[in-house]
Amino acid sequence: MVTLKINDQEVKVAEGTTVLEAAKQLGVNIPTLCNHPDLCVAGNCRVCVVEQKGARTLIAACAMPVSEGMDIHTNSLKVRNARKHIVELLLSEHRADCTKCYKNQKCELQTLANEYSFGEHIFLDLVEDHAYNIDRSSPSFLKDDSKCIRCQRCVRTCAQLQHVSAIAVANKGAHMKISSFHDRPMSHVVCTNCGQCVNRCPTGALTEKTYIDQVWDAIYDPDKHVVVQTAPAVRVALGEDLGYDPGERVTGKMVTALRQLGFDSVLDTDFTADLTIIEEGTELLTRLKKVLVEKDKNTALPMFTSCSPGWIKFIEHKYPHMLPNLSTCKSPQQMFGALAKTFYAQKRNIDPAKIVSVSIMPCTAKKYEADRPEMRSSGYKDIDFVLTTRELAVMIKQAGIDFRTLEPARYDSIMGSSTGAAVIFGATGGVMEAALRTAYELVTGKPVPFTNLNITPVRGMEGVKEATVKIEGTTEEWRFLEGAELKVAIAHGLVNANKVAKAVSTGKASYHFIEIMACPGGCIGGGGQPIPTNVEIRKKRMEAIYSEDMHMDLRKSHENPEVVAIYKEFLEKPNGHKSHELLHTHYIERESY
Amino acid sequence: MYHTGNLVKELAEKHGRKRESLMPILQDIVKKYNYLTDESMVEVATELDISAAEVYGTASFYTFLDTQERGKNVIRVCKTITCSMKGKNDIISTIEDILKIRVGETTPDKMFTLLETNCIGWCHKAPAMLINDMPYTDLTPETVIDVIKGYMRK
Ligand code: SF4
Ligand code: SF4
Ligand code: SF4
Ligand code: FES
Ligand code: FES
Predict the structure, then answer these.
(1) In this model, does residue B117 exceed pLDDT 90?
(2) DSSP state letters, A267-283
(3) Chain A interface residues facing chain B, Cβ-Cβ under 8 Å?
(4) CA–CA separation, A471 vs A460, rounded Å?
């Protein structure tokens, strides 16, 4: 342990703790910009400077480990003056048109400016001299260089968490900027649209591409029937943007709020998550049969899950030779979209041309996914607009809804019912668990041999998880699987996905089924989730998701009554002809820059 | 434009495939071809298992790792204060006149590219310039014509 003084208060902390963390323990707030708890120390913005008695210069609190007897002052005149200069220097190169900015009131730079820089600025304004670029090419987010303070959180995010490095630091001095390869449009590089960088950018330099106005227009249009679906991870995070602590489940209130916003039908992505399990589970079992019994050489194993569009784009760029290993199932969002304008339209007797299909997602990659040309199997754009959890919170505020006082309500029917298995889709390991609950039962006629159906080995925050499930007591049809050990792996965050993909690609791993989610923690840590998102907050959201599962009446996808019904009335059978038309897709090899 | 063929693979064998191998590999490509094509940067990225944006980012930091097409002979006239005061403008306009290109441009036959550079350490013999790796100093409009003509004959 190390003892030091911060603002004359003594504190004992473990060796290796930074001055910033030590101060936090005392409740002393030191402002930061480049620092982020998910990322390595950068120490480049200098906003966190503090004074160490006896030291010649100020030190960066985020980068300086504590040492015995340190005497730190976080608020001396010298410190305040330095911070003021640092903030003003940043502002001198920043197009601070806050009232027009998407990040207004949610911006870390603005907060600092509010504290340290009012009145006349001492530095020349350099913004006019720069030819800044605004990149609107990605359907998921905007990159506005005039708002960038070059803190490099995005660069570290993309490298350390996602192993993509679609963006890096380019040029030097006054020309230094965050750039893709040759500054190409973000839509034409390896970027997966995961939005992890967007979630960590402290300013308005990276923001989701918002479709709020388009959704309002649709709602106000009397000719349109607007359906909305909500992803599992949204209900355990939305509260954070509306004044709740992390980990609060707000499912029922969210449904009421969506109704009050004017959506004609409030439905649940969980319905198609359950459907995904049936389709994907069947696909897995079919592949196993083809490989094990029919010795078919053209069937690829292991099978990767395909519900994370960031992961899909990653593998299309980086491991195109493994595209046959991807499940052909669309993501639950897109299955929902395809059914909304076919099955739902028929049932409700509505002209599909008049349906506007909106989805609320924890994800920015889903905006991109909805734009993929393959995603038009209903004959229309299957999903018209994708909003993030954050955008939904904005709409709720815009409508003047007092969220806390809302009465909880239930989802509408026809594609509104769900199970606990679908809810856990939102956390890493959840798709695997849901799939095992159903597949095991399908093959053996018995529930998975885990207490309360909780398959704990596939849960948790470890980057790569592995588990083996022994299949025993198979029914006649699945006899070939008797005694087989199903080997599964789970990875979240593309840096971990890359490890697994590499192991499979080089033949170093022998799995049958692999779940991948592009974002750390799975969708609960998605790029479209409330800011901040960090380790602690992800944990709270994850706990909330599993508790939501425990509170559901039905906890296995194949027991969802609407899923059973849709096969009877419409789809006929899993992986059947109609399923293939509407619920399955294909992938494309992409370039590597 | 050029194709690197096996060069990038060979350089990766020679310098290794670590992050720190990046600079020597880029330098060797530039030594041979004067600049980095998009294709060569993507190849380097693949060999080292880093992204193309990282290769570009590194290259763009260094003035001598050009990412734009350059001629066979790259002329870099020093623009820093000593050379500036000792008449670099005359040197540049003389070169522009004989090569019929402006600073930043390459001759249509791809023989010459004319650029400016920061101080190259020959201030005591200003004005100075580099052609590829070779410094030329104490330049006058007359001597610079001779130098360029020498390269034209090569
Ligand atoms: S990024 Fe922040 S400081 Fe800049 S304009 Fe937007 S709100 Fe204002
Ligand atoms: S884009 Fe945002 S996160 Fe990236 S360097 Fe600029 S301000 Fe920082
Ligand atoms: S969206 Fe994801 S992949 Fe694209 S630049 Fe940001 S972090 Fe990297
Ligand atoms: S937060 Fe410490 S240097 Fe940026
Ligand atoms: S100023 Fe030209 S070489 Fe130094």
Answers:
(1) yes
(2) EEHHHHHHHHHHHHHHH
(3) 159, 164-172, 179-182, 189-190, 592-593
(4) 23
Are residues B107 and B43 part of one domain?
Answer: no
Q: Is A36 in the pocket of ligand 2 (CB under 6 A)?
A: no
The per-residue pLDDT for A192 is 98
- DSSP string spanning B54-85? HHHHHHHH-TTS--S---SEEEEEE-SHHHHH
ipTM, two decimals:
0.92
Domain end (from A208, A237, A254): A208
B89 within a domain of the structure (yes/no): yes
Per-residue model confidence (pLDDT) at position B154? 80
Domain ranges, residue B106: 73-153
Q: Identify the residue whose tokens are 């294709």.
A: B39
Q: Is residue B67 domain-resident?
A: no
The predicted pLDDT at position A271 comes to 97
Cβ distance A67 to A228 under 8 Å?
Answer: no
B87 with B47, same domain: the answer is no
Query: At B101, which CATH number?
Result: 3.40.30.10
Better pLDDT: A133 or B65 = B65
**Shortest CA distance to A527 belongs to which of A361, A363, A311, A393?**
A363
For residue A39, the enclosing domain spans 2-75
Chain B nearest-CA distance from A177, in A, is 9
User: Which segments of A239-353 are extended strands (E)?
Assistant: 265-268, 303-304
Query: Would A336 be classed as within a structural domain?
Result: no
The CATH number assigned to the domain holding A166 equals 3.30.70.20
pLDDT digits (tens, 9 = 90+) for A195-214: 999 999 999 999 999 999 99
Q: Does B73 touch chain A (CB under 8 A)?
A: no
The CA distance from A166 to B112, in Å, is 34
pLDDT digits (tens, 9 = 90+) for A18-41: 999 999 999 999 999 999 999 999
DSSP A567: I
Whether B147 maps to a domain, the answer reads yes
Question: Any residues with CB less than 8 A from the CB of B18 and at least 6 apart, and which?
Answer: B48
DSSP state letter for A344: I
Q: Which tokens sit at A306?
A: 């395909």
For A317, half-sphere exposure in the C-beta direction (CA atoms, 13 angstrom radius) is 26
| Domain count within chain A | 2
CA–centroid distance, A78 to ligand 1, in Å, is 26
State pTM to two decimals.
0.95
